[in-house]
Each structure stands twice: as structure tokens, then as C-alpha cells.
Amino acid sequence: MKITITENKKVKPDFSKLGFGKYFTDHMLVMDYKDGAWQEPEILPYSSFSLDPSTCVLHYGQGIFEGLKAYKDAKTGKITMFRPYDNFKRMNRSAERLCMPTIDVDSMVEWLKELIILEQDWIPTEPGTALYIRPTMVATDAMLGVHPAHNYRFFIILSPVGSYYASGLKPTKIMVEDNFVRAPLGGTGEAKCMGNYAASLLAGDIANKLGYEQVLWLDAKEKKYVEEVGAMNMFFVIDGVVKTPALVGSILPGITRDSVLQILRAEGRPVEECRISVDEIATARAEGKLDEAFGSGTAAVISPVGVLRIHGEDMLINNFEMGPITSYLYDKLTGIQYGRYEDTFGWIVKVN
Ligand code: PLP
Ligand code: COI
After folding, report:
1. Does the beta carbon of 136 sit less than 6 angstroms from any atom of ligand 1?
2. Closest Cα to atom 6, ligand 2: which residue?
3. Of the bound ligands, which one is closest to the alpha carbon of residue 259?
């Protein structure tokens, strides 16, 4: 892999005030697809791309991305990533759904390690921070016909991040969306493609104006069953059982979701992947059986939900406090990610 080192290193931000996705490191990895094959990847100074105005991703959104994190131990300087193979495997599934070429997962993890080692001074070590990794693939043909492109650009950029929600670990307020839908069955809901996020913006914007952080999407057909939130999968603790919507095809198969399920199952705790109707949640709340609700995601980690608005009515959950299962999972998952606990699942991949 060709590596070009920048001569203009940026001034690093204050790692205690990072927010999410605002700063980018000095280098990026770029790999182009042409003549039916991926070309040699390159590490280059972070810079703008120049694109023809007719570039098809700019018109038809043939683009996919991923999100994963790397962590550095402040004392030893040892760097790790969390489940990177699973992210690139999911990216390949997204690629197939969007008629894009797949990548070689093992090689990509190795190239990513090289990029991270080069940028290791950018990995924050303050509690709750990490290096967020954003692999992306876009169609780059300069043409206006609606058909799969022949040329693609794959790139990885890196961003030192703090917590995804401005409120940090404080419970969030989420609004169940009755009007707009995110993804019908047969659509692109289980792919991590750009259009899913564009389509979610209006509902999110309306929810923000009403004082809610995010919307909780319902199934597109009956608008009855809960699916997921904009950047996280959802869990509800009902009468001691941890329930999460089943992966029916319209929901992103979250890697954090899978990690939560594996942690709970390994301990023999009752968990269910099932259809969960909003009515079941409202009834459980009325009967005092809705113990906790939380979201899971790479950016959001484990995020408690303190208020859920269902059909225009605010339901307070666990007194707007982080519940015991939510805080247990937050501690266990981040403990494995930051190396405080042993990784018995084989999720941690060493970088250096
Ligand atoms: N759902 C959506 C729509 C997302 O964008 C994300 C974030 O990637 C998730 C769920 C959580 O997935 P993961 O745990 O793999 O980050
Ligand atoms: C992630 O958790 O990686 C996400 O994709 C969330 C995001 C869209 C910022």
C-alpha cells in the first residue's frame, strides 16, 4: 500500500470537548474500483475529493458506509478495535443490496490497522472517548443514467469522538413516529445506505423541535411494531425480560445489538428477539412493568431512554434514571471495549 505522509499536520482539538464527528485526522485511506477490480489502496493526506457534477452518487445516492471504533490504553499505548470484521462483513451485505462491489474483509482490516497506527496520536483516552472509524463507498461514474455504476471509491476517514448525544449518558427523550416511516419490508432498511439517513431527517427535525432527541420508527405496514431509532437499535425491559425487535428485514442488524444479546445470553438472563407493539409497551408501562428502555449503537454505545412519547403522550421510564440492566450493560460492554474486563467473546482485535 502506498503511503503519503502529510507535511501539514493539523492542531489537535481538546480531547475533553470532542462531541461527535467534528474533527478528522491527518490521513485517510482511499481505494478505487475500475475495470471490474479494486485497485491498490493508498493512504493519503486528508483532503477534499474533486467530483464531476454528474457523479451518480450525488444524484441517486448509490452509497454505503460503516461505523466502528478503536481504543487506546493510556498507560500502555496498546490500541484495539471492536469487531471490525463484522462491520466490513455488514458493509459487503450493504454493497450487495446496492449493486456495489464487495471488498476483501481480511485485507481491509489489515490496511485499516496501518492507518490507525499512523494516526495513533489522534486516539483520545479520556473516559467515554474513542477513535470513530468511518468506511464509506460511493458510486463515481459521471453519468445520469439510473443503473449500477462501474466505478466506485472506497475511503476510510477517522474522527476522535466523545459521546454521540450532547447530553452524554443522561437518559434521552424519544418520540414514537406515527406519520413517517423509515423502511418497508423489501426496502433498504437492513443496509447501511445513505438514503436511509436522508429519508429520516424530516421526522428527526420535527421531533427535535418538539424537544425529543430522536424518533423511534414503527414498521411501515401496520405502524404498530417498534423497529429502531435513527442511530441505534432498541431494547425494552418488560417484567424482567429484555426484549428487542427481531431482525425482520427493515432494521439494521446492529453489532452492538448482537453484543448485548450475547452478553445477556452468556449469563442466562431472559432475552427475546420478537415483535414488540407500541401497545404492548404502553400497557406494560400502565401496569408498572416497563422497567427500562435503552438504545444500542457504535456511536451511541448504550443509551438510556427516559421518556418515550407514544401517540402524543409522554411516558416517563424509570423516573428518568438509568436503570440497573442498562447500566450493567454499559459497564460490561465498555469494560470489554476499553480492556477493563476480559473479552471472552473474541470481539477485540489488536492493532499494535
Ligand atoms: N440502527 C441504525 C439505523 C444505525 O445507523 C446504527 C448505527 O450504526 C445502529 C442501528 C446500531 O448499529 P451498530 O451497533 O452496528 O453500530
Ligand atoms: C454508528 O453508530 O456508527 C452510526 O452509524 C450512527 C451514525 C449514523 C452517526
Report:
1. no
2. 231
3. 1
Structural domains of the chain sorted by starting position, each given as residue range(s) with its CATH number in brackets: 2-162 (3.30.470.10), 172-338 (3.20.10.10)
pLDDT digits (tens, 9 = 90+) for 52-87: 999 999 999 999 999 999 999 999 999 999 999 999
Choose which residue among 298, 302, 303, 333 to substitute to test ligand 2 binding: the one with the highest number of ligand atoms within 8 A of its C-beta.
Answer: 298
**What global pTM score does this model have?**
0.97
Residue 190 CA: distances (Å) to CA of 12, 217, 252: 36, 13, 4
Q: Whose CA is nearest to atom 6 of ligand 1?
A: 231
Q: How many residues does the chain have?
A: 352
Residue in 215, 275, 214, 213 with CA at minimum distance from that of residue 243: 275
CA 302 to centroid of ligand 1, rounded, Å:
11
Residue 261: pLDDT over 90: yes
Q: Which of 73-77, 109-113, 271-275, 343-347 has the lowest mean pLDDT?
A: 73-77
pLDDT tens-digit profile of 124-150? 999 999 999 999 999 999 999 999 999
Calculate what percentage of the chain has a pLDDT beyond 70: 100
Average pLDDT of the segment spanning 164-191: 92
164 C-alpha to ligand 2 centroid (Å): 9
